[in-house]
Amino acid sequence: MAYDEKLADRVREELGARKNIDEIKMFGGLCFTLNGNMACGVMKDGLLVRVPVDEFEQLLKQPGSRTMDMMAGRTPKGFIVVDGASVSTKPTLKKWVARGVAVAAAMPPKAKGKAKVKKKK
Questions:
Q1: Per-residue confidence band for 119, with pLDDT thresholds at 50, 70 and 90
Q2: Which residues contact 49 (CB under 8 A, 6 or more apart)?
Q3: Could you tell me the strand order of the sheet in which 21-26 lies?
């Protein structure tokens, strides 16, 4: 299991019928983007949330939250992983998903990439 399908379904339900939401398999999990900007995702059994960089340290003090650890020991500010148990209720999940959506909505939309065509030799 690469990611918690039940948590992914709950995030889908929380996002509802918002426009310009896409799902992308990434980092061994599932990311939800708004206008091409990542808002949140599901990694293993946790919720990955994009947060305002200026609130990063404060939000790390929330129950069940931790930094997102990437390869090479990098810890990007602006992304927090919240344990699945800490978003087990609808209100807590709603609060975290709303944070990610707000950050992504404040960013300029990304242009849709064009499919790359390999040239035949």
A1: very low
A2: 39, 40, 79, 80, 81, 82, 96, 97, 99, 100
A3: 21-26, 29-34, 37-43, 46-50, 79-83, 65-67
pTM of the model: 0.86
Alpha helices in the chain (DSSP H): 5-15, 56-59, 90-105
Residue ranges and CATH numbers for the domains of the chain are 5-105 (3.90.1150.30)
| Nearest CA-CA partner of 55 in 65, 45, 64, 47 | 65
Q: pLDDT (tens digit, 9 = 90+) per residue, 61-95?
A: 999 999 987 655 667 789 999 999 999 999 999 99
